Amino acid sequence: MTYGAFTGTLRHMVAVQDPLLSQMRRGTLQYCVLALLAKEERYGFDLVRGLAEVDGMVTSEGTIYPLLSRLRRDGLVESSWQESTAGPPRRYYRLTDAGRTALEGFRLEWRRFRDAVDHFVERSARS
Amino acid sequence: MRPTTERLVDDYLKQLDSELADLSRLRRQEIVEEISQHIAEALAASPSPDEVEVRTLLERLGDPAEIAGEARERFGVQPRKSRVLEIATLLLLLVGGVVLPVIGWLIGVVLLWVSDAWDSRDKLIGTLVVPGGLLLPLALLTIVTSAGGGCSTPVPTTGAPEAAACGSGSGGINVLGLIAMTLLLIVPLVTTAYLARRLRRSAPPAL
After folding, report:
1. DSSP E strand boundaries for A14-119
2. Does the beta-carbon distance from A69 to B74 stay under 8 Å?
3. Tens digit of each residue's pLDDT (9 = 90 or more) over B17-49
4. Of A44, A67, A86, the CB nearest to B74
5. Of B155, B196, B178, B74, the residue nearest A30 (C-alpha)
6. Separation between Cα atoms, residue B88 and residue A30, nearest integer Å
7. Which residues of B fall within a CB distance of 8 Å from A82?
8. From the candidates B70, B75, B207, which should be mutated to test the interface with A, based on the most A CB atoms within 10 A?
9. pTM of the predicted model, to two decimals?
10. Which residue from A11, A42, A95, B162 could staple onto A47, CB 3.0 to 4.6 Å apart?
């Protein structure tokens, strides 16, 4: 029971928290997807597992697919079907030029934002 | 895969498909297809996936309702509300007055004005065009056919004089009456169609 309560608290810390924080995670998630596709094209399963591997990024793997669909509609990624050595063809996602530009823009903004937040939050932790 | 695991996956995908009902058909198809592919990829890695494995996989994917909620949010689609009350309102406005004279229509008007699915202009149109819905034209039709029954039913065998007298006496009025009657019948139907269209548009469009 103590163990259950512990993992419950842990899950609570990671998943629920503040709705604003979960909005922030949702907002940055799409750039993490773009970043994962920046080096190479990937198929859905591979991409999702790549994101889920890092703790605290995704709680439900299935929610990545609506995001991929939206990114595709916005022209930030494009997809094509490719034969797979095992099983049916896979839909591979790759970054478009617009996607690359969006990622670059975010990278600059993110650095500024992260440093600015750290300036206050980290300093308050030290004092 | 063994049947139980197959059924688990099928049920999951079916539930996902129905949860995604608010999205366009293409979008919905794409998401279900990709998640179905995801499941196939994950299970292909295991030589013979058992029930626990499949359940864990589906749990990792997440509740279909959660995935659909994410999809609605990403595409800016509002969850579709049940339109039962609005449809009942339209039916009452149109034929409520016929089924339950006057009162049925009045209930329809009250429902129309308390609903938030239409704006004030729509509500005015719904109330004033035409009060009573089909009650007025149907009542008039009943009166006309029962009063002028001799004229409206042609009696070919009883000779010309009666038919001629009837035709010449009120022919002009009959044509005008017929047009008015047709309009009275059509206009409430047009109003109903208009309000139904406004109902479908009242959900905010996808971004």
Report:
1. 42-43, 77-82, 90-95
2. yes
3. 999 998 999 999 999 999 999 999 999 888 788
4. A67
5. B74
6. 43
7. none
8. B70
9. 0.61
10. A42
